[in-house]
Amino acid sequence: MRFTSERRLDDGVLEREFTLGEVSGILWTPASASTPAPAPLILLGHPPLGLRTMYPRLVARARDSVARGFAAATIELPGSGDRPRWPAADQARSDLRRAMAAGRPVGDEIVGALVLPLVDQAVPEWQAALDALLPLPGIGGPVGYSGGLISIGIRLAVVEPRVSAAVLFAGSLVPRALVEEARQVTVPLHVLLQWDDEGNDRQASLDLFDAFGSQEKSLHAHLGGHTGVPESAGEAAAQFFTRHLT
């Protein structure tokens, strides 16, 4: 890991950009004077739109997490931002848009072609980021995963024992193979669902929630579209992490 920039935000949060191989990322940590003990770490997931595009939302989530005593970090996803594009993923995305525009069902073949290669590469990169982040001064775990593509959260919760709890957003298509993997998830889960999400299959999201193997899991459904998540949902998710990571 190599830190490439450092700045102090107006609320005292330390923001550091880093690179890990070809992967870029951002780490936010509390002011040193306010951290008598190492802080738990929350991994901030996001859609594959690029860190620069997502930065305003990510920094707001990070500042809220740091204010509650956590460190927060995120990394650029494969095929996003300044990373090389994936022609196969672009083709699958075009196929998805055409199917949705025509009102046709989106088959698992399209969803798998779009999501599975991303999950296969992104999850080991998140694990490598954990390897580099957890030994840093002021960060001590445990680790939570929050938001982003739910398929990445599923795989990470299955294969990464350092993830102790997860907040997942049921707002993206999930391949059938990942639904089967969801049965192996055992960490506590807090799942958000926008009831009127125009790009999501509500019944598929309910079936996915039913498939999760966790003994402690809760589903929080709100009326509204994909971007209509109420502020109260963020507060409930933060309380969930406070219970499980502190």
Write the layout of secondary structure elements.
Layout: E1 2-8, E2 14-20, E3 23-29, E4 39-45, H1 51-67, E5 71-75, H2 87-101, H3 108-133, E6 139-147, H4 150-159, E7 163-169, H5 176-182, E8 189-194, H6 202-211, E9 217-222, H7 231-245
Parallel strand pairs: 4-5, 4-6, 6-7, 7-8, 8-9
Antiparallel strand pairs: 1-2, 2-3, 3-5
Strand content: 15-25%
Instruction: Please identify the structural class as seen in this structure.
Output: alpha/beta
Q: Helix-strand pattern, N to C?
A: EEEEHEHHEHEHEHEH
Shape: globular
| Termini gap | 26 Å
Overall CATH class: Alpha Beta
Largest sheet: 9 strands, mixed
Major sheet: arrangement of strands: 1-2-3-5-4-6-7-8-9
Tally of helical runs:
7
CATH topology: the name is Rossmann fold
Low-confidence stretches: none
Helix content: 40-55%
Explain this structure to me?
This protein is an alpha/beta fold and 246 residues long. The chain has a single domain (2-84, 116-245), classed as Alpha/Beta hydrolase fold, catalytic domain (Rossmann fold, 3-Layer(aba) Sandwich). Helices cover 41% and strands 25% of the residues. It contains seven helices and nine strands. It has helices at 51-67, 87-101, 108-133, 150-159, 176-182, 202-211, 231-245; strands at 2-8, 14-20, 23-29, 39-45, 71-75, 139-147, 163-169, 189-194, 217-222. Strands 1-2-3-5-4-6-7-8-9 form a nine-stranded mixed sheet, sandwiched between helices. Helix 2 (87-101) crosses helix 3 and helix 3 (108-133) crosses helix 4. It is globular, with a radius of gyration of 18 Å. The model has no long low-confidence stretch (mean pLDDT 91).
